[in-house]
Amino acid sequence: MDKNELSVVIVTFKSEDKIYKCLDSIPNNLKIFVIENSNNSKFKSHIENIYPNVKCILTGSNKGYAKANNIGLKMVRTKFALILNPDTKLEKNSINKFFDFVRKKQNFWLVGPINNKIKDNLFDGTEEIIEVENLKGFGIFFNMEKFNQNFFDENFFLYFEEIDLCKNVIAKGGKIYLDKNIIISHDGASSVKTSEKIELEKSRNWHWMWSTFYFHKKYKGFLIALLIIFPKLFSSSYKTIFYFLIFNKDKHAIYRNRLSGILNSIIGKKSWYRPSLD
User: Fold this and answer.
1) DSSP letter string over the chain?
2) Do 248 and 123 reside in the same domain of the chain?
């Protein structure tokens, strides 16, 4: 099978520390779209000069994981696409193993690799390919003709996007697989510089809470979502007050953001929070 049938989409945001190792692991005959969630023209020029097969698109501002992936996927003109996190690395035969999979399961919608850094207990030791309901978002192969340009729900800025995507595929009768022969290493939670740890924690906590309520409201309704989120609402309120009283500035800021994310989602505000990073 012709490798030109596959394109790669990588969403980046302050990912200079990781992206080059990822790009070096991808065969240079594949078209790669790097969607940079900023207006960093220096990054764009540098990466396109080093890698002739890379086209870097600047979004102008941080659009989030879902919208940026949609931008890249809508530019793909090949039969298949692979979305990757910038802190991933393909094994030597990852792409060949994907095409081996395609020959076996031509009617698939999505297929995920395994991360060789984490033991996967879904396999019983004999199966090489299993049908699943969810995939991890660090690397997902798309059968593009199945999607008709409808990919991620752009209301999600961060978290739950791939869970929502898989849920939609299952609802349409689509097939999702995990293939243990396709191996992609994933560092995890390290796509950006670690120097802005508190700002990133504030952002992650805000968006985790916002997305949690939004996801459950989308599929279970407002009242059930409220019941699910209530323990987190109570805990965040208590800890926001507690850390304020003991003058723990960082913890107070993190839990205040958790509370803000919950409340903004409950009242129906869009996922607006963005980290303050240089």
Assistant:
1) --GGGEEEEEEESS-TTTHHHHHHTS-TTSEEEEEESS--HHHHHHHHHH-TTEEEEE-SS---HHHHHHHHHTT--SSEEEEE-TTEEE-TTHHHHHHHHHHH-TT-SEEEEE-TTS--TTS-SS-SEEE-S---TTEEEEEGGGTTT----TT-SSSSHHHHHHHHHHHTT--EEEEEEEEEEE--S-SS-GGGHHHHHHHHHHHHHHHHHHHHHHHH-HHHHHHHHHHHHHHHHHHHHHHHHTT-HHHHHHHHHHHHHHHHHHTT----------
2) no
| Same domain flag for 103 and 8 | yes
Question: Do 132 and 235 have their domain in common?
Answer: no
Mean pLDDT computed over 84-106: 95
- 277 within a domain of the structure (yes/no): no
Provide the domain limits for residue 118. Answer: 3-186
- Going by pLDDT thresholds of 50, 70 and 90, the confidence category of residue 194 is very low
- pTM to 2 decimals? 0.91
Q: What is the pLDDT of residue 3?
A: 64
Q: How many domains does the chain have?
A: 2
Q: Give the end of a domain, one of 186, 216, 248.
A: 186
The stretch 250-268 carries a mean pLDDT of 97
